[in-house]
Amino acid sequence: MLFNSPEFIFLFLPLTLFFFFMLGRKGYYQGAIAFLVAASLLFYAWWNPPYLALLIFSIFFNYTVGSALSKRLILSVSPKLLLVLGIAVNLALIGYFKYANFFVYNVSFILGKTFNFDQIILPLAISFFTFQQITYLVDAYRGETQDYSFLEYCLFVTFFPQLIAGPIVHHKEVMPQFANKSIYRFNPEDLAVGVTIFSIGLIKKVLIADIAGLYATPVFNAAASGELLTFYDAWSGALFYTFQLYFDFSGYSEMAIGAARMFGIKLPLNFNSPYKAVNISDFWRRWHITLSNFLRDYLYIPLGGNRKGELRRNLNLIITMLLGGLWHGAGWTFVLWGGLHGVYLCLNHQWRSCRKFLGHDLKKSNWWSRTISCFITFIAVVFGWVLFRADNLDSASLMVQTMLGINGISLSASMVTFKKLLIILFLFIWLIPNSQQWMEQYKPALNLPVVKTYSNWYSQVWKKLQWQPNQTFGIIIGVLLFIAIKTILTAVDSEFLYFNF
Q1: 143 three-class SS
Q2: What are the phi and psi torsion angles at 5 (to 5°)?
Q3: Which residues in 119-220 belong to E strands, given as ranges?
């Protein structure tokens, strides 16, 4: 079941809201949680019912191990060994389902032999709910978890707005909210904020991301088949995919935050205008924020972080980003994409060190230096997305060579049409505040960043246009939502790109 499907919008979501608040209004708080868990399991099973057993096993196993680690369950096993066992089982599951085919293919290639191995279907969301529970086990070992009930833990893992493609929720962020009795009472403000953010996300997905994909997909398909691309076609394909992924992931993140907010639950921010980043470190503080935090807290810092000198720091960055790339997909294109970003991060740190050595004040900047930095960062990210999207290394190489002009520079007859659309998308991501800024006074999500101060006229304009739960904004969102839903009803449902990871 997709967030952008009619059955979710018109059936599943309203019915789940109705029964949840009906049980809550009568004081059946545990019943409301149990119902929400059951609804979330149904939401997951809608995709492939047999894999529901895998999710349920993962929940039972990790809750049991977590209870033992936090001393709520007494087992005659050392905590360290138990933690290693718990993490190993989680990684074994994700390793089998996500990487077994990749491993067998590479072994076959190296040995020059063919092994008969059936194609394994990747269970939906396995990367997300596995990493989410690993953080719980590690924190239980550290003594940082509270005495959560099994029902609360089930909802922490399965809560349907964040189950499929994140954010990777930390138990400290949402589980205390389940104990807050106010969430079980219908709140008009929560509904208004939630519906608005959900609608913005749906509009981004249906009216921007899917349309951008219509231009990006043929270019990458042509590269995969070995067709010679023009310089402009290669760049337009890369840029349209850059925008497709941006609005697809941004749209999903906002729909997740919006759907959760309808239930009175605030999810952590997972996406914060990453193409406005002024360097690659800033990009990773804005893109897939919860994954970046996980990799930092549970991989980069345990490896030593930046505490053991520059050489070790750079090595830790490379390792972290290589594994981050592999997390996204079982393919060498993802590994190289992660490695490329690791190199980007190392270069960024070296550049900052060089500037410090020259006596520059890194806290001071001006508009033109920020603009240049933003542009350079964006171009670096675009080249990375080519690896991320390409079907294989050959097609990625063909795209990159063409974009660099190695195959000659020639333009396409469709240049004028593409140019206008690309300019609109550029203006959209760089000049317009994101939805969290637009609705900042209603605190739509957790961990909202401090809004930066812009020029006076810019701030005044957007301050007057900030969202309010009134008739004017209701009509505007309603019209755009009507167009999006009409598009959904007349088109084939398209999955969110991060469902593949």
Answers
A1: coil
A2: -105, 150
A3: none
Domain ranges of the chain: 6-186, 191-278+365-500
Contacts of 189 (CB under 8 A, 6+ apart): 442, 469
Asked if 393 and 336 touch (Cβ cutoff 8 Å), the reply is yes
Q: What is the pLDDT of residues 252-304, one digit of tens each?
A: 999 999 999 999 999 999 989 999 999 999 999 999 999 999 999 999 999 88
DSSP code of residue 268: B
CA distance 62 to 94: 14
- pTM of structure: 0.90
Whole-angstrom distance between the N-terminal and C-terminal Cα of the chain?
17
H-state helical runs in 179-268: 188-203, 210-224, 231-262
CB-CB neighbours of 413 under 10 Å: 8
Active site residues: 328
Rounded-to-integer distance, Cα 89 and Cα 65, Å: 11
For the chain, how many residues are written? Answer: 501
Of 309, 382, 391, 303, give the one whose Cα is nearest residue 344.
382
Token pair 């997709």 is found at: 2
